[in-house]
Design a protein that fits this description.
alpha+beta, 2 domains, two-stranded parallel sheet, 2 helices, 7 strands, about 30% strand
């Protein structure tokens, strides 16, 4: 694993890591919609670009200032959150990045609660908090 040698390389690493995440998300969403059943070549191109770019950027794990390039946390089983830190950390302290519904436990049940993802770009940390709905009986 390598550390970036310069701020310019930091910016390239950030762009590449962000592109890999976007390609993974796009491939997953289009696969779920069945888009590749008629356009197999399009899926192959997306996957090839993700693999090539991902293999290159994977070697860089830290920016020049020592902060991690990415962090991955598990919200709950089957729900993973990956974050690409910016190449220049300007915020001080943690900030709310994302807030969402955990969804129902089954199609006929109410929401199980909410979760929030907090990030501190300067410290290079990501954490999640969950708020379970007591009335849903999920605690």
């Amino acid at each position: 694993m390598m550390q970036s040698p310069t701020p310019s390389v930091d910016r390239l690493i950030h762009a590449a890591a962000s592109a890999v995440d976007t390609l993974e998300w796009t491939y997953f969403q289009l696969s779920m919609d069945g888009a590749f059943s008629d356009h197999v070549d399009a899926g192959d191109q997306i996957e090839r670009a993700r693999t090539d770019l991902g293999g290159t950027v994977h070697d860089f794990t830290t920016y020049g200032d020592g902060r991690p390039v990415t962090a991955t946390i598990t919200i709950e089983q089957g729900r993973i959150f990956r974050y690409v830190f910016p190449p220049i950390a300007e915020d001080v302290g943690g900030r709310l990045l994302y807030h969402a519904d955990l969804g129902p436990g089954s199609p006929d049940s109410p929401s199980r609660g909410m979760y929030s993802v907090w990030v501190d770009d300067r410290a290079g940390t990501v954490r999640a908090t969950t708020l379970r709905d007591i009335s849903a009986g999920s605690i």
